[in-house]
Structure formats: structure tokens, C-alpha cells
Target: D-glycero-alpha-D-manno-heptose 7-phosphate kinase
Amino acid sequence: MIIRAKAPLRVSFAGGGTDIPPYPQEHGGAVLCSTINKYAYANIIPGGREIEVHSLDYDMTIKYTNSDTALYDGKLDLVKAALRVMEVSDSYATVYLHSDAPPGSGLGSSSSMVVALIGAIKHWLQRPMTSYDIAALAYRVERIELAIAGGMQDQYAAAFGGFNFIEFQGDTVVVNPLRVRSDTINELEYNLLLCYTGGIRLSAHIIDDQVQNYRTGHVDSLEGLHQLKMIAYEMKKALLLGRLDDFGALLHEGWQNKKRLSNRISNSHIDGIYEEALRYGALGGKLLGAGGGGYLLLYCPYNKKHRVAAAIERMGGQITPWNFENRGLQTWESDRGVMSGTIHSMAV
Model:
């Protein structure tokens, strides 16, 4: 029997950065985000005499006999940390992992992978855990166990799924699912473009720079964070009222404030693509994730979207098809594909 799990990736519309400590501890943070139909997958085949982990994306395999003996050496450390935090020390299995987007793409793929893995382990060991428990544990794996710089929104977005307004006050996280009208969701999806700009970025370096600017009292950085939080509330209101042109304009306003946090967030290539998109009719947009590269999200009136897409492709950008996903983490069991200890079918 194979235990499978998948957790959706996310697009962050507003407030990203206000979920990164110490800002939420001192001022409170808020983000608006939604999950999309791109996923991180974890597959567990229980049994054997060791833990054997295969990353299908990196064509990498690690093996060890006990989670206590797995050293963090840069090779699939997220998996080792998840197994250690979940206290998988006397159970063995073969684990297969893969994702629809690489780390550094800006879609929260690393956090989604940890959420998927924790979900699969929970299913395997029959652990009673809520979506809040899973998200909090995923945060612990990334930010505490492995000390990877970053915020708190990605883990909760992947665990809960759908459109969420997530508030952070100190160490307390409140996920507010939004009841967005279906015609508003369809119209928003129709008017958004997801563009891959290239340049997988090292988000930890950008985040370290952002946090350093905040800690040293950089006035522009602090004011940028305050504005990003305010824009998240305004964008939530625009979304719930179906005022999508306002939503697009707020994306632009948020992107201008995001760039105030660190001079590493954008570069001349990204700025050039964005300016060209605006010239051809986009109302606004933003880089997803910490910045520096990866995916650019753009809001375009439907009758100008094709012109914006063509302009971006001429500049080397790649338009990516996608849809919104309302479901969060999912786990299930399958008896397909088990033969000689390998998976022959990854169908879901």
C-alpha cells in the first residue's frame, strides 16, 4: 500500500513580508493569498529496514537507518527534519517526492513539500493532527529546526487551501477562509497572467537583507511593511466586493512598496518585463515570493491580456497555465504501482 499526499502551491497577493519575524511579533502582520493547481507530492511505502528517500526532481537518493543519525548536510534536509520532528525513529519506509515547481520559484514549493510530507507521515502513523497543527509543525521544520529564513504564510496556505486572509500576531496565526463569489473567482482567474521570469533566486539572502533593514531601523523598509499590511486589508475588501480593477491597481501599489524592503527584491530584467506589461495594458502585478526572480503575477483586462502575454514572451518570459485550487492538503492510500520497492505510476 502506498500512502500519498499532495499540498497545493500558492500565489500571494498582498502582505508578504509582514509574516516574517520580528515584524509580526512587534506590529502584527496580514497576508492575502490563494492556492493554485500546482502541487508538491509525497509518497510513502511503509516497510523495509531503513529510511530511503528519493527526490524525483533532483534525481537524488538518501538512505539511513534512524532519524537520529540523519545529519543535516544539504541533501534533502527538509525530509530529514520532518521525519525527526515527527519522531519517526522506529518505523521505516521508502519515500518518493516531487513538485510541480522548483524551490526558488516564488510559489512556496518548499513549504508545500514539507506540508505534504507531514501529511503523508500523519496518515501513515495515524497521528491526530489538525490543519493548524500540520502548518505549525511545517513552520517548525523549516524555520526552527533548519533555521531557513522565511515567513509563516506558506505553510498555512498549503495546509488549508483556497482563498485565505491570514493574520499574524506574535506567534498566533489565524486563518480566515474567504467566501469569494464564484463569478469573482472566475473573472479574477481570467484576468491574471502567471509568467516565469527565470532566475531561481536565493530567497534566504533577500529575506536576511529585509530583516536586517528592519532591525537597523531603515525607515523606508519599515514604512513599506506598514503599507503592505494596509494594502492586504484593502485588497481583501476589493476581492470580496468584486472590484477587480481596484484589485489590480492594489497589486501595483503593493509591488512598489515591496521593493522598498530590500534592493535585492527586483532587478533590471524584472523591472523591464514589468514596465513592458504595463505599457501593453496590465493594471498591476508583483513578483511572487521573496523576489529576485521566479514567477511574476500580472492583472490584465481581458481584452489586453493577449497583448501583455505576447510582449512578455518577446522578452523571454514564459506564460504558465494554471487555475485556482480550493482544496488544501490531501492524503489517501493506493495499491497501484508497488513492484520491487519502486513506484511505477505517479497518477493521482
In short: The chain has two domains: 2-178+333-343, 182-319. Residues 191 and 300 are 5 Å apart (CA to CA). The two ends are 14 Å apart (CA to CA). The first helix runs from residue 23 to 26.
